[in-house]
Amino acid sequence: MKVFDQNMLMLVLVLSFLCNFSRLHGADPTDGFTNIPLTEANFKIQRPYNLPVEARYSFENGVRRMWVYANDKSHSPNSQTQPRTEVRIMGHDYSSGVWQFEGYGFVPNGTTGPSVVQIHGATHESSTIILRIYDGELRYYSGDLIASNMYDKWFKVNLIHDVDEGKVTVFIDNEQKFETKDRGPGDLYFKCGVYAAPKNISYYMESRWRDIKIYKK
């Protein structure tokens, strides 16, 4: 009987390990989600208000390239925010449920300080989560380190926002890297590109994105 109990305990431990390993290392974060079809109408480009779109954005061979300079204007003449060139996902704002952003990002060496992907909106803040690049490190705002050595390579990003549970999970290249509480419900939507931080930024900032998808449960 003791041998049977020991074997059962070992089996439970092995299964638990395999489950956790799969969740953290290589599991598809989109399992159980439904893909939402996107068209070009869902991609709104925010850029310095005094410039044409093509001065800060290109879309070639499936790659959306966005760049901005530290002394550029904001996206609106009435805005006091930092300069940006971002894709704002339109038509799929949300305030409840479980939603997910997926995309492949690329940040060239030398870009430092901008947000490259975010969930905009919260109860008392302007954003739920922002991922910024500082000297090749991907960080939660300017704090917690999420991933290192991110320059000059394509990396896959999955942001999962469970609004009802108040939780945001970050996957990089199918590995769970970070989890945090959100900042309360609101009018929520996804953005990616380059949005300068208030300080410690490079003069030139750029990121590229491809294969952007939105999922929900």
TrEMBL record:
It comes from Heracleum sosnowskyi. The lineage of its organism: Eukaryota, Viridiplantae, Streptophyta, Embryophyta, Tracheophyta. Keywords: Signal. InterPro entries: Alginate_lyase_2 (IPR014895), ConA-like_dom_sf (IPR013320). Residues 1-26 form the signal peptide. SUPFAM superfamilies: Concanavalin A-like lectins/glucanases. It holds the Pfam family Alginate_lyase2. Residues 41-215 form the Alginate lyase domain. This is Citrate-binding protein-like.
